Amino acid sequence: MSAFPPSLAHVADAEATHLPLDVGGLFDAHAGWVHRLAQRLTSSSAAADDVVQEVFLLAHRRRGELTDRVGIRTWLYRATVNVARQSYRTGRRYSSAMERAGADQGREGTNPEAALMRHESAVLVRACVASISDAGREVFVLYELERIEGAEIAEILEIPVNTVWSRLRLARVAFREAWRIHAGGAP
Questions:
Q1: Spatial separation of the C-alpha atoms in residues 11 and 23, rounded to whole Å
Q2: Are 47 and 95 in contact (CB under 8 A)?
Q3: To pair with 18 at 20 to 30 A between CA atoms, which of 50, 60, 172, 180?
Q4: How far apart are CA 61 and CA 182, in angstroms?
């Protein structure tokens, strides 16, 4: 059974037969979670948009190299993490406070108080995640927010599994400390 919906089976077929990948189909199937991951890593919707664009441009440039030897989803995770790292290193990591404040617009529903609480919580979580070291943040986001297992995180980040657990432990400590400082209590 293919991991792709029937309408995107051609993506899986290209992967299985070592044909150049249909990047449009790949984008349709994966852009949503790639953007979500990018936003969690960069804490910015605008930076996440740039990361998604770069990831799929990279997939287009390397479509002949992408085969079933490396799972497409794992490759996309790795590419997203690497492009987000590069974005951070070049100073594009943070956007303005106004952009962050507008990130959740349109999802509030009809209860303004609940919407405000969700927004404040989201801003607080983003600030706490942003306070974690680069290496720790990557592991924290992949494990705690994306729910990826440690062995797959090790493969994505190309680090030993024990390093994943060590970084996760330190990242959790940093998150709790940031939460204590910003929210005044335990998460």
A1: 8
A2: yes
A3: 50
A4: 43
- Measured CA to CA in angstroms, residue 128 lies from 22, 41, 88, 160, 169 at distances of 38, 12, 16, 25, 15
Q: Are residues 20 and 57 in the same domain?
A: yes
| Residue 172 in this model has a pLDDT that exceeds 90 | yes
d(CA 85, CA 93): 9
Q: Are 140 and 171 in contact (CB under 8 A)?
A: yes
Look up the domain containing 164 and give its range.
112-181
Indicate if 144 and 74 belong to the same structural domain: no
Quote the pLDDT of residue 98.
38
Other CB atoms closer than 10 Å to residue 27's CB: what's the count? 17
Is pLDDT at 97 greater than 50 in this prediction?
no
- Cβ atoms of 100 and 44 within 8 Å: the answer is yes
User: Structurally, how many domains does the chain consist of?
Assistant: 2
pLDDT digits (tens, 9 = 90+) for 15-55: 455 556 788 888 999 999 999 999 988 878 888 999 999 99
